[in-house]
Amino acid sequence: MARVFLGIGSNVERYRHVGLALGALQEMFGELSVSPVYESEPVGFAGSNFLNLAVGFHTELPVAELSQRLKQLELDFGRSPDAPRFSPRTLDLDILTYGDEVGMVAGVELPRGEILKNAFVLKPLADIAPRETHPVSGRCYRDLWQDYRTGQKLWPVDFNWQGRQISAAIS
């Protein structure tokens, strides 16, 4: 059974789509580790701000089947199959890591390169898996986040799911 971490993002009906995605993922995979939810500006295009978070779970699905199920979820929640890479989206589900897999596996880059490039990917991952190590760098996500330096900004937002507070905005 592989330990998987996903990145979740939405900038169209953000709160609704993130909540629905969490419910669908829990139904598919059982118990989820859920990071705080952050708001961030879009990267690569002008548009509404995103909500981003990371989740972790265990699965026996191979990478190809997991990827296909996630793509289907995106479509089920209204993502256009031919939308440009840098564009608004109802739901974006990215496999960040799949166990210790490295390289292109079933068309999926593992670990996902955005982990080391984007604050909205690394920070939530560092929150839920601080001592886990990046399969290529060998450094833990907490240390990678502490050393992270770019102009990208993100901030925690109030988010409740299944009657519990997942994250709170800093006042």
Strand percentage lies at 25-35%
User: In terms of per-residue confidence, which ranges show pLDDT below 50 for 5 or more consecutive residues?
Assistant: none
Largest sheet: 6 strands, antiparallel
| Strand segment count | 10
Task: Report the radius of gyration as a whole number of Å.
Answer: 15 Å
Overall mean pLDDT: 93
CATH class: Alpha Beta
How far apart are the termini? 40 Å
Q: Please work out how many helical segments DSSP would assign.
A: 5
H-E string: EHEEEHEEEHHHEEE
Inertia-based shape? globular
Structural class: alpha+beta
Number of domains: 1
Can you give the helix content as a percent range? Answer: 25-40%
Please state the second-level CATH architecture.
Answer: 2-Layer Sandwich
SSE order and pairing:
Elements: E1 2-10, H1 14-29, E2 33-34, E3 38-40, E4 50-59, H2 63-76, E5 92-98, E6 103-105, E7 108-110, H3 114-117, H4 119-128, H5 141-146, E8 154-156, E9 159-161, E10 164-167
Antiparallel strand pairs: 1-4, 1-5, 2-4, 3-4, 3-8, 6-7, 9-10
Describe this structure in words.
The protein has 171 residues and is an alpha+beta fold. The protein has a single domain, classed as 7,8-Dihydro-6-hydroxymethylpterin-pyrophosphokinase HPPK (Alpha-Beta Plaits). It is built from five helices and ten strands; from the N terminus they run E-H-E-E-E-H-E-E-E-H-H-H-E-E-E. The longest helix is centred in the N-terminal third of the chain and has 16 residues.
List keywords for this structure.
171 residues; alpha+beta; Alpha-Beta Plaits; 6-stranded antiparallel β-sheet; two-stranded antiparallel sheet; 5 helices; 29% helix
